[in-house]
């Protein structure tokens, strides 16, 4: 189940390396226009999927 968190909590988790920040739009152009610092696109996440640990925290966002 997805849990909503506030922006500060998300930022702290990403900066500390505990979580990945992912733009939830599948449209690369839309994602580029909404990209936050330290975020990756869904396409980038899919490319790294095999390397991720099963317990990797991932924070999805949309604007």
Written overview of the protein:
- The protein has 63 residues and is α/β, with parallel strands linked by helices.
- It is 37% helix and 19% strand.
- A 3-stranded parallel beta sheet has the order 2-1-3.
- β1, α2 and β2 form a beta-alpha-beta unit.
- The chain starts with 6 loop residues before the first helix and ends with a strand.
- The mean pLDDT is 92.
Label this structure with key terms.
single chain; three-stranded parallel β-sheet; globular
Described by strand count, sense and barrel closure, the largest sheet is:
3 strands, parallel
SSE string: HEHEHE
Strand content: 15-25%
Number of domains: 1
List the helices and strands and how they pair.
Elements: H1 7-15, E1 19-23, H2 28-34, E2 39-40, H3 42-48, E3 57-61
Q: How would you sum up this structure in a few lines?
A:
This protein has 63 residues and is α/β, with parallel strands linked by helices.
């Amino acid at each position: 189940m997805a849990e909503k968190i506030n922006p500060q909590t998300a930022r702290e988790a990403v900066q500390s390396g505990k979580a990945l920040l992912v733009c939830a739009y599948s449209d690369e152009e839309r994602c580029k226009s909404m990209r936050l610092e330290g975020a990756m696109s869904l396409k980038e996440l899919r490319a790294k999927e095999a390397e991720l640990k099963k317990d990797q925290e991932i924070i999805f966002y949309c604007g």
